[in-house]
Amino acid sequence: MTSEPVPESAQTITLTPEQWQAFQDRLYERDDRLELRTPDTVVARGEAVDVYILSGHAEALRSGDVDGDVWGTLEDLDETARDEEEAWEKIVAFYQDRGSVMVRVTGLDEPEEWLFTAELAQRLELPDQGRPDQGSAG
């Protein structure tokens, strides 16, 4: 591995595809702010969140559903890489070094990894999603 090591304090949350979908199903966007639905939340049609809207709130991502523009993100960081895997490792190291949280979805054919600020992840209760005692998310 040629990228800098990820700090031990970096947080990676691992979800199943079902947990990831349940998490997404609880989201809505109001006034450009991503929010988590509660049972009494009334959401207008225009406030629904799909992966494209969610991607606008991510620091960076690598997804089978959304183009995360790994090379463009790497260029924004003034970094270079030999291949996309090394590029992604450098992006992850950069953001996790600054406290971002990685959400990794397992059990899929293509990588599904999203980086969110720690504040957003906490507000959306993402740390709770990956705890083994939580069962499925949502």
Structural summary, described in words:
- This protein is 33% helix and 18% strand.
- It has 138 residues and is of the alpha+beta class.
- The strands form two sheets. The protein has a four-stranded mixed beta sheet with strand order 1-5-6-4. A two-stranded antiparallel ribbon has the order 2-3.
- Helix 3 (70-76) packs across helix 4 (84-97).
Task: State mean pLDDT (0 to 100 scale).
Answer: 87
**Order of secondary-structure elements:** EHEEHEHHEEHH
Q: Strand fraction band?
A: 15-25%
Which percent bin holds the helix content?
A: 25-40%
Largest sheet: spatial strand order:
1-5-6-4
Structural category: alpha+beta
Number of DSSP helical runs:
6
Protein name: Cyclic nucleotide-binding domain-containing protein
Organism: Deinococcus arenicola
How do the strands and helices of this protein lay out in sequence?
Elements: E1 11-15, H1 17-25, E2 27-30, E3 33-36, H2 51-55, E4 60-62, H3 70-76, H4 84-97, E5 101-105, E6 113-116, H5 118-123, H6 126-129
Helix pairs in contact: 3-4
In short:
It comes from Deinococcus arenicola. The chain is α+β, with helices and mostly antiparallel strands and 138 residues long.
